[in-house]
Amino acid sequence: MSSSLKKQADWFVSTKEMTKEALRLSFQMNRQYTLSKDQYTATMHDNFMALSLAIRDRIVERWIKTQQGYHKKNVRRVYYLSMEFLIGRLMGNNMYNLGIEAQATDALDELGLDMEKVREEEVDAGLGNGGLGRLAACFLDSMASLGVPAHGYGIRYDYGIFHQKIKEGFQVELPDEWLRSGNPWEFERPENTVNVRFYGQIQEDHDQKGKLKYKWVNTHDVLAVPYDFPVPGYKNDVVNTLRLWSARGTEEFDFDYFKSGDYEHAVYKKILSENISKVLYPSDERSQGKELRLKQEYFFTAASMSDILRRFKSENPDLNDLPKKIVIQLNDTHPTLGIVELMRLLLDEYDFEWQTAWDITTKVFAYTNHTLMPEALECWSIDLFEKLLPRHMQIIYDINAHFLRSVALRYPGDNDRLSRMSIIEEGHSKRIRMAYLAIVGSSFVNGVSKLHSDLLQEKLFKDFYEFYPEKFNNKTNGITQRRWLLKANPRLSSLLKEKLGDSWVMDLYKLEKLNTLKSDKAFRGRWMDIKKQNKEALVRYIKSSMNISLDPESIFDVQVKRIHEYKRQILFAFYIISQYLKLKHNPKEFIYPRTFMIGGKAAPSYHMAKLTIKFINSIADIINQDKTVNDKIRLIFLENYRVSLAEKIFPASDLSEQISTAGTEASGTGNMKFMMNGALTVGTLDGANIEMAQAVGEENIFIFGLKSHEVDALKHKGYHPQAYIDQNPMLKEVFKLIQSGFFSPHDIKLFAPIIHSLTQHDTYLVCADFESYCQTQDQVSRMYLNKDEWAQKSIINVAQSGYFSSDRTIREYSKEIWKIPTF
Predict the structure, then answer these.
(1) CA torsion sign, 413 to 417 to 420 to 421?
(2) What is the pLDDT of residues 406-445, one digit of tens each?
(3) Strand partners, 166
(4) Kind and range of the H or E element at 20?
(5) For residue 76, what pLDDT is reported?
(6) Which of 361, 669, 776, 809 is catalytic?
(7) Is 229's pLDDT higher than 70?
(8) pTM over 0.90, yes/no
């Protein structure tokens, strides 16, 4: 690089210009002086790193100004605590939010580099299992874009959700080494390291005034080292912070062991400490797994509470003012220990009286519930909890005693109610009910869809709703259109900008103007052409990655989500088998070709979910190799489903499968991503499907199956799945085919657990909903024959997706819970 070019580059970089020229020079500077590479020696990954650093430079300038502004104005802040942040790839999102995607692409083009190839070098940050973590990521984007002063807190897992491989049809889990080649988006902040304590004993003493004091001594300490990720808003110069904690040992090694040559024991404590942030959600089948999970939850909440108080005290002298300046949102029960930790800090470190500390704590916290199933509510055994966190156990006993006294005063003599509402579940093995603790310790409790919130109040937390009706509210989930439409679907986004302008990027309700265009035949033609181009792009990806050829003219019928019995991938699989049988027996009755796609990961210890994956792949093996049907139907299991793959799938999908048993899915966000990209939904009246149906009209969504109250009534009456099997010839034949070993010729009994579960229990009513589902799917096929009508319905779905923006959700949180204004 010549001296004149160096001077020019210095000027551009120092001013952080957003032009093509500035980005090109910044890229070259970072590649040469930060990475010590040139155009001849740089790998494609080096080019990715150089561009990331060029983008990051422009974010950092705005980040510093944003944080300075928060500090100087001493603003009220939101702290969003979540065990999961499924942030995926960040380069594209950051470019779009800065408004420099086109300039950066042109800059690389001048250097002979392909932006898509550079972007493919980025590894997904898979720090979550699914919807919970992706929701948290969408919320961070919306908070920054709406100007909400916010900080996210979580764990910097060394290994995120596992990398899924499919071998002989079975899921195999491999480590997700997302940090192996470095991460350009994070900043280590060792100066803000926090000491987190575990185990030990509690010493009681009295101060000079005779007040009882507690000291937590002889603890095993772990260091929580923070790593900060900038979160830029959309073209507003606001950059918030996601702080993730990494565990480090307090000592590198034990020198006595080291001197004696026992090097393994010398580093044992260090390894044990650092296991806390090693892997996302360790298996909890064994006691060690449960203990590590509890350690993770306390580790990040304790570090976060310490950090929150540090920030607060830098601007405010009086901890009594905490509720005026901070609100802490708990994303499910995993961070609930933050309530107890704040109490411990106020009581033991800052000498507050119990009632004053409790009043402050309950005003600071708010709790979001994400499950309707009682078995999914988090509980911890008293024995484990007391061993790991002895002081916190004392405080929970005190919280429960105070709470039950207030319940007893309201309902004198109602001992059954006291037992039902106690935070401590009595029985052979006492447990702490974390959801109850979250409700008691928070000022607000919300569900994540209208149905979910209603069922929380009517069923799951009925006693608590009667006691605290003012606490409960609904905040239907949403997704960020900047990630899931603007970035994921550039072809459709370009059409929307051409016809509507770009105001929808920050106000998704503006898409309602599409309703005036749905009758325009030329517009419908362009709409369907874009869908076809997106399908062809996915076809090329699947061909290159899986060596499978697909027909883009077929209906792309897709179910991608975590593999779980309540999400009913089995129901989808049974329908696919029925279509195979229809083609074999009565091909004239088959209506329209389909490509079925299923993707998702099963928890490593969830046997039935993993068997479901094998079942789907076994069906695919039969169908895809049968030349008499594979020009009409094909089944693909999409390996290693993740955020970056999802961004390819949603724009290309025609039909979205949202088929959970009514009353089991809290909300769902995948349903919204499909809708926002023009796919039509086949689904039950469950979660946010209900609100989607209300938004688009029942004629523009395919609803089937039992409703929530009908599910309850059937189970109460006594559900017998065999009766439904006997009444439906197709369902009966599906079962016979599976039982015969047709899909498992080398092991006839391989899928016996699935058959046994469905014929004996069928907890999620697959058999009861099968006939309605098949009839509705026939409606789908007939509707697709009329491409013009299908296009209108697709347009309506996108036009009515405004309510499902996470911007709307965050505005509701900000106004009704956080009391913070938004842009």
Answers:
(1) negative
(2) 999 999 999 999 999 999 998 888 999 999 999 999 999 9
(3) 171
(4) helix 20-29
(5) 98
(6) 669
(7) yes
(8) yes
- State residue 203 phi and psi, 5-degree precision: -100, 135
Q: How many CB atoms lie within 10 A of CB 755?
A: 13
- The predicted pLDDT at position 553 comes to 97
632 assigned to active site: no
Token duo for residue 402: 């105070």
Q: How high is the mean pLDDT of the chain?
A: 94
Backbone angles phi, psi at 194, to 5 degrees: -120, 140
The pLDDT of residue 41 is above 70: yes
Kindly give, in sequence order, each residue whose CB lies less than 8 Å from that of residue 470, ignoring residues fewer than 6 positions away. none
What is the spatial distance between Cα 770 and Cα 61, in angstroms, rounded to a whole number?
56
pLDDT of residue 12: 52
- Out of 482, 561, 582, 632, the active site residue is 561
Among all chains, which residue has been given the structure tokens 């709470």?
403
Mean pLDDT value of segment 747-753:
97
- Partners of residue 633 on adjacent β-strands: 594
**561 given a catalytic annotation:** yes
Model confidence pLDDT, tens digit, residues 186-197: 999 999 999 999
Question: CA 543 to CA 675: how far, in whole Å?
Answer: 26
| Other beta carbons within 10 Å of 104 | 26
Question: Residues 756-780: what's their mean pLDDT?
Answer: 98
- Has residue 257 got a pLDDT over 60? no
Res 17: pLDDT: 87
Give all strands of the β-sheet with 424-425 in edge-to-edge order: 379-381, 431-433, 424-425
- Give yes or no: 462 in active site: no
CA–CA distances in Å: residue 570 to residues 608, 616, 751 = 11, 8, 12
Catalytic residue among 20, 334, 370, 634: 370
Known active-site residue 562:
yes
Three-state DSSP at 582 gives helix
Query: What integer is the mean pLDDT of 380-389?
Result: 96
Angle at 464 between CA 460 and CA 465, to 5 degrees: 85
The one catalytic residue in 62, 134, 562, 634 is: 562
At 682, give phi and psi (nearest 5°): -110, 120
**Among 560, 519, 523, 558, CA closest to 654:** 558
Burial string for 419-428 (b: 16+ CB within 10 Å, else e) reads eebbbbbeee
Of 483, 531, 673, 808, the catalytic one is: 673
Catalytic residue from among 156, 567, 793, 811: 567
Give the DSSP per-residue string, 671-715: HHHHHHTT-EEEE-S-TTHHHHHHHH-GGGSEE-S--HHHHHHHH
Any idea which residue has 């590649």 for tokens? Answer: 31
CB 648 within 8 A of CB 537: yes
Confidence bin at 270 (pLDDT 50/70/90): confident
pLDDT tens per residue across span 665-682 = 999 999 999 999 999 999
Decide if 392 is catalytic. no
**Which residue, 566, 742, 750, 557, is CA-closest to 652?**
557
Q: How many residues does the chain have?
A: 823
Residue for token digits 């062809």? Answer: 536
Q: How many CA atoms does the CB half-sphere of 304 hold within 13 Å?
A: 35
Question: Which DSSP helix (H) or strand (E) runs through 562?
Answer: none
User: Position of tokens 């569900």?
Assistant: 447
Q: How many CB atoms lie within 10 A of CB 182?
A: 10
